[in-house]
Amino acid sequence: MNDLSNYRKSYEKSELLEDNIPEDPINLFNRWFHEVEEFGASGEVNAMTVSTIGLDGFPKSRVVLLKKFSEEGFIFYTNYDSEKGKAIAANPHVCLSFFWQEMERQVIIKGIAEKTSENISDGYFDSRPDGSKLGAIVSKQSEVIPSRTFLEENLKKLEKEFEGKPIPRPENWGGFLVTPLEVEFWQGRPNRLHDRIRYQSQSDFSWKIERLSS
């Protein structure tokens, strides 16, 4: 057995106090996102974990890239026929989480996912490199395939088929908008007395703000 009990770290880089936060969690998320970006994060700042409840009843998490956020919510793109796409169609309650190790911060978002409009999905698809567009067409995401060669050969066929031609967005590929119902901000602090501030959406479109014990 690998004993990890001595893996410890003291979190001392920042603080999260009620007298320095906005009334809207999207504004705080925007501040944190750009602070992490300016700090020089080594990875992709927009990498997030998307957790869903699968058709088998088990939760499943995977890392995807956030592509847009606004007061409306958080947008990512995927194959609608993938495991997560089918899971969201059956149960749109999802959780998004960001962990920015460099600044000892975490954000957890509970929300409702729905497909973006075709115009939004088309616009983002058109902005992608041709290789990524063809990859979205050739990949039957989450399905069992015989080999890596199977994917590569199918990609070569598509490259010839669409050479010099516009590449259309597949109908089963597009965006999900996650409308946040609850957003929790976690800032690491010394002695495991971490700062945790939770925003909960209210019926009058305001946000209830509470501090949680670490």
Strand content: 25-35%
Could you tell me the mean pLDDT? 94
CATH architecture of the domain at 25-133 and 173-211: Roll
Helix content: 25-40%
CATH topology of the domain at 25-133 and 173-211: Pnp Oxidase, Chain A
Strand count: 9
**What is the C-alpha radius of gyration, as a whole number of Å?**
20 Å
So what's the CATH class of the domain at 25-133 and 173-211? Mainly Beta
Helix count from the secondary structure assignment: 5
The SS-based structural class is alpha+beta
Along the chain, the helix and strand elements come as HEEEEHEEHHHEEE
Roughly how many Å apart are the termini? 29 Å
Note poorly predicted spans.
Answer: none
Can you tell me the overall shape?
A: globular
Report the biggest beta sheet as strand number plus sense, adding barrel if it closes: 9 strands, antiparallel
CATH H-level name of the domain at 25-133 and 173-211... which superfamily? Electron Transport, Fmn-binding Protein, Chain A
Enzyme class: oxidoreductase
Keywords: Flavoprotein, FMN, Oxidoreductase, Pyridoxine biosynthesis
InterPro entries: Pyridox_Oxase, Pyridox_Oxase_CS, Pyridox_Oxase_N, Pyridoxamine_oxidase_dimer_C, Split_barrel_FMN-bd
Domain Pyridoxamine 5'-phosphate oxidase N-terminal: 44-157
